[in-house]
Specification:
Elements lengths: L1 H29 L1 H33 L1
């Protein structure tokens, strides 16, 4: 009986880790919609940066004239 309990205790940690890894992987696959949302936000920020760079360049040309 003691060997059975010892065996279960030894297997509990790897089994728990495997279950947690499986659940975390499942969560990443289900959260796929968030990736496109992040990509849209990145695109908007890049467009804003480009706009600010263009305004800065225009201000420099005006001040040089």
């Amino acid at each position: 009986m003691e060997s059975l309990l010892l065996g279960l205790a030894v297997l509990a940690c790897p089994a728990g880790m495997g279950i947690m890894m499986w659940m975390m992987g499942r969560g990443h696959r289900q959260g796929g919609g968030q990736g496109s949302e992040k990509e849209q936000q990145i695109a908007l920020l890049r467009a804003e940066i480009d706009q600010l760079k263009a305004e800065r360049a225009a201000d420099r040309t005006r001040s040089e004239s």
